[in-house]
């Protein structure tokens, strides 16, 4: 497991999260950004020219984070660690591929990681 990399990331983000889990929704490159909190509005990703999860330069390292407080949240682009937070989430909810990258392909086995 890559906890030597993973633990410092969570430690640095303790004000933002206390858990990491995955949701395979974030693995779908064709998923429309209109389905997430940071979709449109002044702070929306659609208004910045992005249309799908796969159009984001950080894909598949995307997901939800507790720092994103809801629709049109101004916090979307200030909440990146190794993922781009595009939706609301309890702690960090990322694509399975992103969690596999952090846990040496153990996302399914672990399901949830606490700091």
Descriptive report:
InterPro entries: Cerato-platanin, RlpA-like_sf. Pfam families: Cerato-platanin (PF07249). Helices cover 18% and strands 17% of the residues. It has 115 residues and is of the alpha/beta class. The chain has a single domain (3-114), classed as Barwin-like endoglucanases (Beta Barrel). The protein is globular and about 40 Å long. Mean pLDDT is 77; it is low at 1-17.
Summarize the structure.
By secondary structure, the protein is of the alpha/beta class. It is built from 3 helices and 5 strands; from the N terminus they run H-E-E-E-E-H-H-E.
Q: Which series of helices and strands comes N to C? A: HEEEEHHE
- Number of individual domains: 1
CA-based shape: globular
CATH topology: Barwin-like endoglucanases
| Alpha-carbon Rg, integer | 13 Å
| The CATH C-level class name | Mainly Beta
How many β-strand runs?
5
- Contiguous uncertain segments of 5+ residues: 1-17
The end-to-end span amounts to: 14 Å
**Average pLDDT:** 77
* Share of helix, binned: 10-25%
- The second-level CATH architecture is Beta Barrel
For the largest beta-sheet, the strand count, sense and barrel status come to: 5 strands, mixed
Organism: Lentinula edodes (Shiitake mushroom)
Protein name: Cerato-platanin 7
Keywords: Secreted, Signal
Subcellular location: Secreted
């Amino acid at each position: 497991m890559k906890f030597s990399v993973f633990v410092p990331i969570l430690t640095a983000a303790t004000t933002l999260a206390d858990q990491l889990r995955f949701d395979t929704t974030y693995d779908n490159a064709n998923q429309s950004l209109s389905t997430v909190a940071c979709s449109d509005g002044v702070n929306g990703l659609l208004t910045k020219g992005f249309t799908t999860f796969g159009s984001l330069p950080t894909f598949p390292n995307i997901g939800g984070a507790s720092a994103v407080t809801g629709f049109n949240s101004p916090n979307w682009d200030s909440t990146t660690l190794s993922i781009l937070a595009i939706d609301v989430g309890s702690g960090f909810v990322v694509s399975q591929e992103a969690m596999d990258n952090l846990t040496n392909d153990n996302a399914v086995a672990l399901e949830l990681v606490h700091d």
